[in-house]
Amino acid sequence: MKYFLHALPKSFILGTFLLFGLSAQAILLAQSSHNRIYSSSTNNNAVNSNSKPAFIQDIGINEKLGTRIPAGLNFANANGDSVQLVDLLSSGKPVILNPLYYECPVLCGLVIDGLFDAIQNLAWQPGKEFDIISVSIDPTETDTLATRVKQNYIENGNWGATKGSEQHATTIVQVNEGWSFLTGKQTAIDSLISTVGFGVVPIPGTKDFAHSAAIILLSPDGTITRYLYGLRFNEFDLRTAILEASKGTVGNTIDKLIMYCYQYDPNSNSYAPMAKRIMSLGGLATLIFLGILLGYYWLRESRKNSLNY
Fold first, then answer.
1. Which residues are bridge partners to 180 per DSSP?
2. Which of 100, 117, 146, 244 could staple 181 via S-S, CB 3.0–4.6 A?
3. Is 106 helix (H, G, I), strand (E, B) or coil?
4. d(CA 13, CA 4)
């Protein structure tokens, strides 16, 4: 054993210490970055809160994580056909729920534009790894309007293929199936927004509504798993939220390792690195690395000793 330890090259010993040092530094940098983001987010939220009109300050989202979308909610799709929301949740894929109203003058358009831009950057696509349900909170809106809005977004996306190509045409069909644009009656709308905790209040003297800016992630069985807030959605946060909602049904091994190392932080509205989990994986990787190298040197020395005899 003594001879074996002396036989280890200095470069191996130095490399091991360097590996531990780099792992620790990466964790510190990740935590430092997260703290800066959280500080900035907190300051911005304080400024925005003070600038809101009184009745808008009462509008928010009451997160209901773990709540399941109830059966019996009927809506109309963009073709005017009656559909049950639970039927759209039976595809076995995670779902992004996007409450909005199609004639919203500002906020809804910004939210759906942010969602559209984010999914254009994803390696995954609606109708394949996940579905999207955009549902109007205005009972006066019609399926004709929903059709126009749906065509605008689906036909303007590249969806990972060159426009005009056969692959793009095939993907359009897939996305068209995977992204639903719904309208409904007041009772169904009220039941849905109450279930997901999405606050909506009519603005006095107008046909508009005051509401929050958020999308809601649902598991394949219709259970609420995450809320993402804002007008723009970070590609990493959206991908991780979809992976979390999927409960392992989408994503590769690397995606699942990333999911293990990150956890949603409600204070910063983003996924933050978990130092303890990163250290656990780093320690495991180091042990495997050391085991392989030690095994290699042990075999080499055993062969040398057998040749000497």
1. 133
2. 146
3. coil
4. 13
- Among 141, 121, 146, 223, residue whose Cα is nearest residue 188: 141
- 200-202 and 179-182 as β-strands: parallel, antiparallel, unpaired? unpaired
Nearest to 174 by CA among 136, 131, 139, 215: 131
Question: What span, in angstroms and rounded, lies between the C-alpha atoms of 32 and 278?
Answer: 15
The candidate with the shortest Cα–Cα distance to 235, out of 135, 152, 150, 116, is 116
Beta-bridged to residue 263, according to DSSP, are 272
Element (H, E) at 210: strand 209-211
Quick: pLDDT tens for 278-298. 555 455 567 676 677 777 767
**Model confidence pLDDT, tens digit, residues 264-283:** 566 666 656 555 555 554 55
Task: For residue 8, give the nearest of 251, 271, 301 by alpha carbon.
Answer: 301
8 A C-beta contact, residue 267 and residue 38 = yes
Domains belonging to the chain, first-starting first, are 2-48+275-308 (no CATH), 52-273 (3.40.30.10)
Q: Taking the complete model, does pTM exceed 0.85, yes or no?
A: no
Instruction: Find the helix or strand (DSSP H, E) in which 5 lies.
Output: helix 2-7
Are the beta carbons of 28 and 271 closer than 8 angstroms?
A: no
Answer left, alpha or beta for residue 247, where phi above 0 means left and psi between -120 and 50 means alpha.
left
Cβ burial of 160 (10 Å; 0-12, 13-18, 19+) is middle
